[in-house]
Amino acid sequence: MEFLGNEMLTVKDGKLKIDGHDAGELAKMYETPLYVMSETQTVKNFERYVESFKEYSEKTGKETIFSFAYKANTNLALTKLLSKLGCGADIVSAGELYIAKISNVPSEKIVFNGNCKLKEEIKMGIETKIRAFNVDSISDLILINETAKEMGKIANVAFRVNPNVDPKTHPKISTGMKKNKFGLDIESGIALQTIKMAEKMENVKIVGIHCHIGSQLTEISPFVEETRKIMDFVVLLKNEGININDVNLGGGLGIPYDKQKVIPVQKDLAKAILSVIYEYESKIELPNLILEPGRSIVATSGVLLGTVKHIKDTPVAKWIMIDAGMNDMMRPAIYEAYHEITSCTLRSEKEVVSIAGGLCESSDVFGKDRELSKIEVNDTIAILDVGAYGISMANNYNSRGKPAMVLTSEKEVSIIRERETLADLISKDIVPNHLL
Ligand SMILES: Cc1ncc(COP(=O)(O)O)c(C=O)c1O
């Protein structure tokens, strides 16, 4: 089998290796379900962004900032790793801001997104002196201004605009079309009206324009359309006497979940976006560039290992039941997402099987009718490309503890998240006196 995008995976003597470590052995040593994150792959994915976009700062003298979308994965080892590499943080909650601060992300590389920010979160962002709040509505702007006023401070604001661009992705992860809840509509004039309101406010400073049209984009054309609409809007603002320092184009670059399909990578994204931005050189002073990639930095780095516990034949399928379930990795259940699956022991005989978890839900299925190498009870199964929106969406449904997590490099394996215990499952519940 081919591992497009998963350079940390190899097969030796019929055994799957992650950064050279035998996946079946990792499963035995740390038990399953187990998330394995490759440090090597994460560094490569991030450095490809730096490398692909480095010409922008060289040519223009402007900043290029990559703010990792924390929602993709907030494991502290990963956020610290990325922060050490010079990566910023795109956050959407007090929790994510807290993690960014603990990870030593410089405040000027933190951007605060979200369509329903809370006053306490805004306060925390102002205290941290973040680079910008990405304003999503007039009421969001008013709350930011009022909060800053009460604190005797000025808050930096960028405006999340909705450019009405079809990202050609799954509808549940599309965010920049008119029908979506996000952003300030450009066409109707709402975005301009909001920015003009901000101009008159005393406790906000206008610093940028922001946009994020969706996730898992596998074509470049929507990014081109987005960039052009944003740059046109920046020109319009300049003509209104409003100068924009930062243009933030969000995240969204997809990864090859389907190993048969070659899709654009960081350098294709850079080439497309930058060539549009350069077209505006004569019309405006080019801005600092911010991107918020999540999936394309960590998805391909992650593998979820599960152990085969039962094998069952029905008239229509052969079911392989593993100890990982939809509570560990929700994507197939909520988006019908495709993830490549492989046995960690590759035998020459093949069979068509369906792979399921043990939760009491028919949607707890990782893959249907897949041709895999013959599987036996106690084999380790690997679900690929789970490093983004995997552990960060994990939950305790069916009272199952969240899985453990290890970080691999060619040199070592480190545990980076403990498995939740039975006691953890009830640690926040309180039984009133009359029921004791
Ligand atoms: C505002 C914003 N920025 C960035 C991202 C990251 O997107 P991706 O993981 O597709 O790069 C998201 C994800 O939905 C988002 O909502």
Question: What is shown here, in short?
Answer:
Specifically catalyzes the decarboxylation of meso-diaminopimelate (meso-DAP) to L-lysine. Belongs to the Orn/Lys/Arg decarboxylase class-II family. LysA subfamily. By secondary structure, this protein is of the alpha/beta class.
Task: Give an overview of the whole structure.
By secondary structure, the protein is an alpha/beta fold. It folds into two domains: 9-38 and 300-426, Lyase, Ornithine Decarboxylase, Chain A, domain 1; 62-293, Alpha-Beta Barrel (TIM Barrel), CATH 3.20.20. Helix content is 30%, strand content 25%. The protein has helices at residues 23-30, 39-60, 76-84, 94-102, 119-128, 138-151, 190-200, 221-239, 266-278, 295-298, 331-335, 422-426; strands at 9-12, 15-18, 21-22, 34-38, 64-69, 88-91, 110-112, 132-135, 155-162, 184-185, 204-210, 246-248, 288-291, 302-313, 318-322, 341-343, 350-356, 365-373, 380-384, 404-408, 413-417. The strands form three sheets. Strands 4, 14, 15, 16, 17, 18, 19, 20 and 21 form a nine-stranded mixed sheet that branches. Strands 5-6-7-8-9-11-12-13 form an eight-stranded parallel β-barrel, surrounded by seven helices. It has a three-stranded antiparallel sheet with strand order 1-2-3. The chain binds pyridoxal-5'-phosphate (PLP). Pyridoxal-5'-phosphate binds next to helix 10. Pyridoxal 5'-phosphate binds at residues 252, 292-295, 389. Its cofactor is pyridoxal 5'-phosphate. Residues 51-299 form the Orn/DAP/Arg decarboxylase 2 N-terminal domain.
